[in-house]
Amino acid sequence: MSEYKSIKGKTIQYLGTDPSDTGAEGQLWYNSAAGAFKSVLVNEAWSAGANLVTGRVHIGSSGTQTAGLAWCGDPGSSPNLSNSTEEYNGSGWATGGDFTVSTRRVFGAGTQTASVAAGGDVAPNTASYEYDGSSWTAGNSINTGRTQHNMAGTQTAGLMFGGRPPDYLASTEEYDGTNWTTGGSLNTARARLSGNGIQTATVAMGGNPTPGAGTATEEYDGTSWTTSNSMNNVRRQAASAGIQTSTIIFGGDADPGFLTKTENYDGSTWTESPANLSTTVNGHGGAGTSSASVSFGGYTGTVYTSATEEYNKSANVITGAAWASGGNMNTARYLLASAGTVESAMLGAGGYGPPAPANNTFANVEEYNGTSWTEVNDIPAIKSRFKGAGTQTAAVTFGGFTPLGPNTNYNTTEKYDGTNWTTSGTMNTARCYMAGFGTQTAAVCAGGATLNPDVGFNKTEEYNGTSWSEVNNMPNYFRNQSGAGIITAAVVSGGFEGPSSSYPSLTSTLTTLEYDGTNWTSGGVNLSPAPGLSSGGTQSSAWFAGYFPGTTNTHYNGTSFVTSASTAGSHSAAGGGAPQTAGIIFGGYDTGLVSATEEFTGETSALNLKTLTTS
To answer: What pTM value is reported for the model?
Structure first.
């Protein structure tokens, strides 16, 4: 009888706890605490990633799962074609250097910092382009202008094949980093095909015309193409990733109908994966390897999507970053102040809640314990459009506005000790719609405006727990910005900006500013001009979410922004806080007042443990 050790080269271990690293893959052990044999299984799954900044179809793509590149495409809106480039870091998307023209189906290959692209829908479609990680430059022309083709390889050893101008092409061209030369022709002329690999070992599959090319697979050896086994599903306009001997293809359309199905290729045979995309899609981008790839953008049959999904085949179960529902506030409202540094201890105060009754403004305060909201003592003044800082048991709120009575712009400050509110010091300038951050004894109020009369500000004030002092002004006039961090290291972004204090002339802005306790300096450019965001975290690890209308959540690393998982609904002018990896947003405005709470959890990874039974 053969022993387990002689078959697997490992003994069955006797352990008190399960192992936690991927070195356990293929092992069998007995967990003495559970009284059971266990092992680790390889898992295949797609999980949600952060959305593209701009959803689009017929998008160019290259790179890896943690360093992907997307360019051009059709966003389905005016202008009809895009020239934008986006870079993916495995967590979110950030803007890169614009393409030289607005076009679509300009496909390419390479890495995030060294890609080549060619052809496309915009005449003359003989052009080629190179990306260096920051900008695109024109390269030498290809020999045959084309679109609906595909590419593989690298920036200095690329391969282009198939397409149409308008007849189906079998021709192949090789790129050496400077010039394009003719290679061996495909056995089946086709367009809208998929492919990946290197210049001397590429696999091409699917495409038009169907059925002739719909499932057909061919391999290139640097000289000629050879027919291999067919795919299980007819596909065109699908995305793929990997190399010739280990590739993955996903999505596409099957004429008729779009696919969610994934297939794996081992250099000879195609097998269907148990993992499917969450939605049907075609004309999307793809990057990565056969065990770690990413799909983004495309057309679902109803929308030009910005969705991103990640595929992982490993001993780990990957759970994508996501927002989940928390307990609803007792009073739906927006333009409220908030404080708190953890999801399980947040504070929401005041706010605004028309239309019934008109101009309804609140003084009531609620505390969140991670599950539910509880009414506590009211703040001393009825107000909205103000800011808070600190923690649930040591909070400070300041400024604000009420439309009740006569309209009032506040300069008052309120401190909360976890039970009671007291007034403490007045700001030098009454205002609302300001940015705020810090702690109860070291807070900052920046920018803002007054209403009736409408005046914008660039003034900054610091609070020491007792009184306010004016410090260096912001470099421009701002209102509705959001802030995160502490008095000596903070970031503010979004909102409205103007060259003067004229409130009505302020326009939405992409400007981000950083504060070091003395001076304001420029930070990374925001991905979308969004007033009324919620925010949390630190200067080098902040999040911003909740503008209306929209659900985009962005993360800031102290230098640049990337997209992250979207909230389920809009939360304009909501409360929020806590770290970037565990943020919380509550209340706000969508198509009406919002009482909902959403909690963020960053991406997690855990071993795919299996308990062995006799059944």
So the answer is: 0.85
